[in-house]
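Data availability (excerpt). The following record was deposited with the supplementary files.
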Amino acid sequence: MIEIKHPQELARLRRLALAAQGLLQAQSHGRGLAGARKAINHIGYVQIDTISVVERAHHHVFHARVPKFKPAMTNQMLLDGDIFEYWTHAAAFLPIADFRFSLPYKHAIKSGQTHWYKNPDKKLMNELLVRIRSDGPIRSRDIETNTTKRAGWWDWKPAKKALEQLYMQGDLMVCDREGFQKTYDLTERVLPSHVNSHMPSMEEFAAHIVEQQLRCHGLVSLKGLTYQRRNAELRKAVKALVNERLAQHALEQVQVSSGELFILEAGALERPLPRLNNRMLILSPFDNSVIQRERLKSLFQFDYQIECYLPAAKRQYGYFCLPLLYRDEFIGQMDCKAHRKTSHLEIKSLHLKQHTVDEDLVMTAFVDAITQFCEFQKCDSVSLTKVHPKHLTQRLHSTLKSLE
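Predicted structure:
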């Protein structure tokens, strides 16, 4: 085991983690639609979120990694069969090549080993399947907007639950999306014929998780490998595989100052890494690089929590604060709202940590990042209300005003 004691050693770990996430290079996966395909295949999933104060999280994650990405490209990948929608630790888009690794959870729900809804209405579920098989795909809105009881339709709440149960247990897949209105069809009609749909063994599943997490994070904790997965058998298989590969010296461990142990491929610390540049990235609260908050705190000393679920009086930074990554350091967070009717980005508060890097470089990087972020949000003006530290207020006001 390697003990990480010096700041330079920790900085190398950080660079390894950020490079694995595709956040150090401007075009680590390419551009546009092709780049988005490569990005999700590399990072393993993109979380779907409903909060819309700024562009949705699933588009934001791509935007941070893929130049020329457009939100419409996400649904294009779904329509093209490049990705599918299912559950990881939350609702997510996943690479279609990983489809078979969704099967264990689907099987557990269908067999009753675990529950999505308790006591699902199997009669109603069968009726829905018969209807979809004969009439074609069904939109969630077709059920939700059926306020009058027409022949062959059902009360929307039970029908919506039945539809979601069929989706979660694998009988249906999402074949199209219009915002948050999903269209469902039979899995056999949606799944491309070339996709492997064989149930993986527990050993195969464990190997897939270990390899995927090392690829997209660079270094992982044992807890992080099975983040939010409640399958005890899978956790056991992952731990056994990690111990086996440690014994074979294919993997090694490092310990950071917090005491947390991370696992990485042997020799990873000696590999060449991309150079740092003076670029700032505005990330989603649900970005793959920050979603494991304990890991974020141990590696980056960034104690970050999303506050939209807290009462307003208890919020320290704001409703939907976006983490700010400068070079290899998380240096603050920004609470903002895109006013779409007026094409205006309102920065309600900007909090920057005290740091040792050049303030002029940070300000230049922030303005560059905001310029790109406004374009992503389809906003042509920006305002700033509150800044910490306060001495930056006038300077930022003047600089942002010049963008309008």
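Summary of structural features: The domain at 305-401 is CATH 3.40.630 (Aminopeptidase).
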